[in-house]
């Protein structure tokens, strides 16, 4: 009788070892994008992301609509989230559709392998886009007027010097072409 218990215990451990990466993937996707999430429940947005990132959605057999329908079926009627058990049922429902032609058990194992150990991809994060319009607006060589004074020839900002009008107490009006020539003119007479 002791031997039977040990064998059953080993079978249970083997099943838990198979499920553990799946549970870990569930938790990672469940908390993705939500700082207050506990990882015990997954919302529809994260379920759709999991299906897309883990390549369950292939565009032919399984579409985004299929994923949404399965989520609605798996969750409790009044709930907006699914638990880990409901998550497994949802995967099992998608498996025969995703792996058409395989036996139901093989399809379930195949879909689990797609999800196991995965985590949310950070694809599509907003990046700085440089277009011709942005290039034109940020090209300091095309600036005119007072804005031109804020940058040197290489396009680097000049700091405080470029922002403030510096006064020269020479006695001449700013921009006067013949500044400093008065002494020369008076000596000539």
From TrEMBL:
A GO molecular-function descriptor: tubulin binding
Keywords: Cytoplasm, Cytoskeleton, Microtubule
GO biological process: microtubule bundle formation; microtubule polymerization; positive regulation of protein polymerization
Cellular component terms per the entry's GO annotation: microtubule
Compositional bias per record (Basic and acidic residues), positions renumbered to this chain: 146-166
Cell compartments where the protein resides: Cytoplasm, Cytoskeleton
InterPro entries: EF-hand-dom_pair, TPP/p25
Record region (Disordered): 144-169
Family: Belongs to the TPPP family.
Protein name: Tubulin polymerization-promoting protein family member 3
Gene of this entry: TPPP3
């Amino acid at each position: 009788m002791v031997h039977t218990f040990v064998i059953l215990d080993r079978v249970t451990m083997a099943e838990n070892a198979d499920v553990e990466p799946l549970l870990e993937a569930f938790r990672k996707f469940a908390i993705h994008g939500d700082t207050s999430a506990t990882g015990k429940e997954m919302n529809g947005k994260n379920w759709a992301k999991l299906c897309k990132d883990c390549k369950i959605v292939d565009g032919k057999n399984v579409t985004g609509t299929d994923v949404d329908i399965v989520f609605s079926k798996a969750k409790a009627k009044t709930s907006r989230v699914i638990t880990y058990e409901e998550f497994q049922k949802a995967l099992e429902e998608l498996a025969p559709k995703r792996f058409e032609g395989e036996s139901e058990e093989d399809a379930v194992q195949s879909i689990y392998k797609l999800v196991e150990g995965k985590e949310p991809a950070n694809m599509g994060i907003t990046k700085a886009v440089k277009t011709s319009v942005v290039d034109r607006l940020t090209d300091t060589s095309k600036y005119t007027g007072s804005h031109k004074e804020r940058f040197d020839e290489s396009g680097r900002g000049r700091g405080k010097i470029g922002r403030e009008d510096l006064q020269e107490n020479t006695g001449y009006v700013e921009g006067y072409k013949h500044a400093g020539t008065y002494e020369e003119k008076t000596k000539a007479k």
